[in-house]
Amino acid sequence: MIGNFSYLNATKLYFGDDSLKFLNEELPKYGKNVVLIYGGGSIKKTGLYDDVLSVLKANGKTVFEDGGVMPNPTTDKLREGVKIARDAKADLLLAVGGGSCCDYAKAVAVSVNCDEDPWDKYFLRFEEPSCEILPVGCVLTMAGTGSEMNGGSVITDSATNTKIGHVFGSEVMPKFSILNPKYTMSLPKYQMIAGIYDIFSHICEQYFSGDDTNVSDYIAEALMKSVIDASRVAVKNPEDYEARSNIMWAATWALNTLIAKGKTTDWMVHMLGQAVGGYTDATHGMTLAAVTLPYFRCILEAGLAKFKRFATEVWNVNPEGKTDKEVAEEGLAALEAWMREIGLVMNITDLGATEDMIEDIADKVIVLTGGYKVLTRDEIVKVLRESLN
Ligand code: NZQ
Ligand code: ZN
Known about the structure:
Strand order of the largest sheet: 1-8-5-4-2-3
Order of helices and strands: EHEHHEHEHHEEEEHHHHHHHHH
Helix content: 40-55%
Number of domains: 2
Structural class: alpha/beta
Bound molecules: 5,6-dihydroxy-NADP, zinc ion
CATH superfamily of the largest domain: Dehydroquinate synthase-like - alpha domain
CATH class of the largest domain: Mainly Alpha
């Protein structure tokens, strides 16, 4: 049964290898002052910075720069960004980069006209914005998070090693996003693979929950198969436009709010990975890869029917003559083989986590209740310990 819901996705997408030209259609909708948000400099190396700047200038915009957004953007950077946007009297925040830049832009957008501290209000108290929200636009350079078409914003408080995401409503989603698969081709392989696994994990988080066979499960399986196929091509040939464009489009669909509608969702791999990320500052997709298998093995019996379906529908496991558990385990073995094949980091030790951090990391894991099993503290510690190797 599909549960009741309302649905609106407020982001307009422009997809393709000539999509930057559509910035000319979007910019006239906003005032003169644009804050150009970008990361550690990749867009300067690729030339995208110059390209975007010239479109902004051609549209008569006054540009204020907010560069240096780090992967896993921090509270300190957020407070700095709020000041830049306030001083600029910003009319538009234009994020040019990966999920970190886009997430950060959304966090600035809800904080510029807010008197309270954004970390306390949005990330610790999970309150909704009660102030005017600045519009955000995005030119995406990395496929993975889905931030280009959702309201998610994940911020890290380095002082307390705490990484927390707030999923804002449609008023915070980017007003437009420009998706050019060619921009993703300059990504280091490590980031490309991490992004691929982030996509896969987003789909799993919304698939491994609920008892019903609903339309989302079928869409999820198709998306997973597409990501697996395209990943194999992209790992061998990162310049393959077809594969990179499929990965980029799958990333958007994996987390643009659609496949979560009308069903429960899990998100515990993300809660575990996020807690690890808070302590290690590791690449998001890799934190997910490193905790997935121990977590899935922990919930396998509770979600046996879906894990069996995952094995047969996504990995083509032949169920004949096997128990449900054997089929489900074969599915996880196929998942593990693919993860190793594309080169993911398979344990949190390689991401900088150590045995003595486990209890502290466990303290930071937010326990959600939408999945097949609500984890106890002991189970969280067990999953994290198993993720060390
Ligand atoms: O900073 P620059 O120099 O641009 O380099 C970045 C960064 O070092 C580099 N990069 C990006 N595009 C590139 C490139 N390098 C060369 N060529 C390009 N075309 O890649 C590195 C990682 O970038 P980042 O933006 O951090 O990666 P990603 O897109 O994976 O974003 C990660 C952040 O998004 C959050 C994560 O927790 C993390 O903080 N997430 C956001 C979500 C959402 N909004 O819904 C959901 C996700 O689950 C996730 O939590
Ligand atoms: Zn993710």
